[in-house]
Design brief:
Layout lengths: L3 H21 L5 H11 L2 E3 L5 H15 L11 E6 L5 H9 L22 E3 L5 E3 L17 E6 L9 H17 L5 E4 L31 H15 L6
Parallel strand pairs: 1-4, 2-5, 2-6, 3-5
Antiparallel strand pairs: 3-4
Helix pairs in contact: 1-2, 5-6
Length: 239
C-alpha cells in the first residue's frame, strides 16, 4: 500500500497532467488520448481473481443470464457503490474470497459466488483495480453481465469524501474513453428504478432473484458526479 503522502503526490500529478492532456490532445486522436489517460491515472492492482472464481462466475451467468461464461466484452453501464465497510483493508479482504459469506442471507441461496467489483476507491482517493474490465463481477442484481462496478470505501453517504468524488470523475472519464459501449451511469440506489432507461438491460433467467432497494451512494454524490463529468469532460450518460 502507498503512504498517504505518496498517494496525494501522485493524485496531484494526475490532476495536473490531465489538465495538460485535455488542452494538448486533438479530440480526434481518441486511441492516443485513451492510452495517455490510462498512463497518467494512478491505479494500483490488487488481484482478487482465481480459477475457482471464474468457474463460479460461469455457473452464476448460466443460472441468471442464460449463458455460460465470465467475459464482459462490451460493458453498457457503470455502477457506483459505497461499501458500508469502514476500511480499505476489510474491503479488499471481503472481495478476495471466492465464496459468498454465510451471513449474506438475502442472496446466498442464488449462488455461492462471492460478490466482486472492478474498482475500489479509498477515502483518500487512491484507486485499486480488483478485477479486469473484461471479467463479470457480482455486484448488482440483473445487470452484472453488462456493467462495470466502482466501490467507494464508506459506511454511509455522509462518509464519502471529496477525494473520492475526484477519483470517480477521473476513473469514469477513463472508462468512457476505454469502452465506447458504455451508455449508462447509475448509483446502486437507482438500479431498481424501473422507470429509468437502464432498466431495459435487466435480465433475470431465474425470476425469483429480484432486485431490492439499496441506499448507496446517494443522490448528493451522484448529482455532483454527473455535474462534474459534464463540466470537465462533456460526458453525459443516461441513467
Amino acid at each position: 500500500m502507498l503512504s498517504s503522502l505518496s498517494r496525494w503526490s501522485r493524485r496531484i500529478a494526475v490532476v495536473i497532467a490531465s489538465l495538460v492532456l485535455i488542452i494538448a490532445c486533438d479530440s480526434t486522436s481518441n486511441d492516443h488520448t485513451t492510452a495517455a489517460v490510462e498512463e497518467l491515472l494512478a491505479v494500483d492492482t490488487v488481484l482478487t481473481l482465481s480459477d475457482l472464481k471464474l468457474s463460479l462466475t460461469e455457473e452464476y451467468c448460466l443460472q441468471h443470464y442464460g449463458f455460460r461464461g465470465y467475459k464482459l466484452d462490451a460493458p453498457k453501464m457503470i455502477v457506483v457503490h459505497h461499501t458500508v465497510i469502514p476500511t480499505l483493508e476489510e474491503t479488499i479482504a471481503l472481495f478476495k474470497r471466492d465464496h459468498l459469506a454465510s451471513n449474506r442471507t438475502r442472496i446466498n441461496n442464488f449462488s455461492s459466488l462471492n460478490v466482486g467489483i472492478h474498482y475500489v476507491i479509498d477515502k483518500d482517493g487512491a484507486i485499486y483495480n480488483l478485477l479486469p474490465d473484461s471479467i463479470i463481477a457480482r455486484h448488482i442484481i440483473g445487470f452484472n453481465h453488462v456493467s462495470l462496478g466502482i466501490e467507494n470505501v464508506a459506511v454511509s453517504a455522509e462518509d464519502l469524501t471529496e477525494a473520492q468524488l475526484e477519483s470517480n470523475i477521473s476513473l469514469i472519464n477513463l472508462l468512457a474513453e476505454r469502452h465506447s459501449s458504455v451508455e449508462f451511469l447509475i448509483g446502486h440506489d437507482e438500479y431498481n428504478d424501473r422507470s429509468l432507461p437502464h432498466f431495459e438491460l435487466f435480465t433475470a433467467a431465474d425470476t425469483t432473484y429480484q432486485p431490492y432497494d439499496k441506499p448507496d451512494p446517494g443522490i448528493k454524490f451522484m448529482t455532483s458526479l454527473r455535474d462534474q463529468l459534464m463540466k470537465r469532460h462533456g460526458l453525459e450518460f443516461k441513467k
